[in-house]
Amino acid sequence: MLKAFAYRIYPTKPQLKDLEEHLNRTRELYNAALQERRDAYKKTGGSVTAFEQMRSLVEVKEGRPEYRRIHAHVLQGVITQLDRAFQGFFRRVKAGEKAGYPRFKSKDRWNSFHFKQVWDNSRDNWFGPGKPVGSNRIRLPNIGDVRIKWHRPLVGRPKTLTIKRDGEHWYAVYVCEVEPTPLPPAGGEVGIDLGTSPNFLVTSNGGLVPAPKYYRVTERKLRRQQRVVSRRKRGSSGRKKAVAALKRLHRKVRNQRKDFHHKTARKLLEANDVVYHENLSVKAMSRSRLSKSILDMGWGQFLNILYGKAAEAGRRVVGVNPAYTSQICSGCGHVQKVPIGKPYECGACGLVIHRDVNAALNILRMGQGLPLGESDEVAHARRPQKPPALAVG
Ligand SMILES: [Zn+2]
After folding, report:
1. Cα 357 from Cα 363, distance rounded (Å)
2. What is the distance in A from the centroid of ligand 1 to the CA of 333?
3. What is the CA(347)–ligand 1 centre distance, in A?
4. Ligand 1 centre and the CA of 349: distance in Å?
5. Distance 245 CA to ligand 1 centre (A)
6. Pairing of strands 169-177, 157-166
């Protein structure tokens, strides 16, 4: 399985210039290759293939010597990236979905370039780009030996390397082939109810994971900074500074959220062999009035992380059909509407239970294929109890 490892890198001033040059040239190449495909289609209705475009890289280098200072794999990667954009476009057209034609990339939408091979499989050794040099540098062709902070070990066999800019920070992201490391059996299964304010998630055994407060705080700062930006005059140096500060805050929120998702997923998988969740259509949910907080929480990202970690740990994550999970009584199977903000009080059997724990129990049973309202947890859930908070972080 593949796993990404991201490390902050600290280029010197001349290296920074070269990194930026790489971004400028690759962006220019992407836009030119896109233009070529558009023109070919307009003039002849025909198409230009990725293979043809890769071949013409030779001419590009002849006509524009600055391109010779960029590794061939990086340039080929740009063509591949464009080709993927077109494949995605054609697939969506074919499927009758809304399909945006691949677009030209502006400066703020182009923040990375890629080395497609960093490991030589035949020699079982580093191929070149991204090779560690000494204890705290990596070798980047045409850029130099760039300082890196190995804040955690690089595990597995590295395949590709992406150099990424995020505001004024730069990162090296290695994608590695890693062996799964199974966790010892936990002897339990759990259902989780996602997207129920004010909690990030609620488990079928009564655990509540509150939505993290700390990024709410950062978010408030974010809104304030947004206003500062809009007050500054376009093109002024004050505005540039304000935009940089805004980007820093965005990065902070993103990192905090990701960190929280990782920790939450790890706790769930350590304690359970199988995690059942509702198949959420994030798109559908974000259209609802919960829109804001749902987009903030990034359910899609959380589930991706959960699935990725499960594969690595030999655990299972299973999606179930979310129909009526909040309306069914987990004690007896009775179906009723529940007012928002109130506990579930069953009109048939008298069960009183936290409404989201009730839903999580239903999700667990659906996942296990048990009839609703007829398992061991019923008696347990019937006992009035204060759900323990599941500490995260
Ligand atoms: Zn009931």
Report:
1. 10
2. 6
3. 7
4. 4
5. 53
6. antiparallel
Confirm if 162 and 7 have CB atoms less than 8 A apart: no
Q: How far is the CA of 356 from the centre of ligand 1 (A)?
A: 15
Please tell me the distance between residue 321's alpha carbon and the centre of ligand 1 in angstroms. 21
CA 339 – ligand 1 centroid, Å: 16
Q: Could you identify the residue written with the tokens 């929280």?
A: 260
Average pLDDT over every residue of 327-356 = 90
Q: Residue 65: is it exposed, middle or buried by C-beta count within 10 angstroms (0-12/13-18/19+)? A: exposed
Q: Report whether 174 contacts 154 (CB < 8 A).
A: yes
pLDDT for the residue 251: 85
Residue 138 has a pLDDT of 97
| Residue 147: per-residue pLDDT | 98
What separation in Å is there between the alpha carbon of 378 and the centre of ligand 1? 10
* Residue 297, pLDDT score: 64
Under 8 Å between Cβ of 7 and 94: no
Cα 371 to ligand 1 centroid, rounded to whole Å? 13
- The Cα angle at residue 107 between residues 104 and 108, in degrees rounded to 5: 105
For residues 72 and 56, give the distance between their C-alpha atoms in angstroms, rounded to a whole number: 12
User: What average pLDDT does the chain have?
Assistant: 86
Q: How far is CA 272 from CA 258, 303, 314, 363, in A?
A: 21, 16, 11, 15
User: Has residue 346 got a pLDDT over 50?
Assistant: yes
- Residues near 306 by Cβ (< 8 Å), separated by ≥ 6? 265, 268, 269, 275, 277, 317
Tokens coding 349: 């059997």
Can you tell me the distance from the alpha carbon of 208 to that of 367, in angstroms, rounded to the nearest whole number?
Answer: 20
Question: What value does the mean pLDDT take over residues 334-342?
Answer: 86
320-337 per-position pLDDT tens digit: 887 788 899 998 888 998
Alpha carbon distance 269, 363 (integer Å): 17
Considering just the CA atoms, what is the radius of gyration of the chain in Å? 26
Question: From the CA of 360, how far away is ligand 1's center (Å)?
Answer: 15
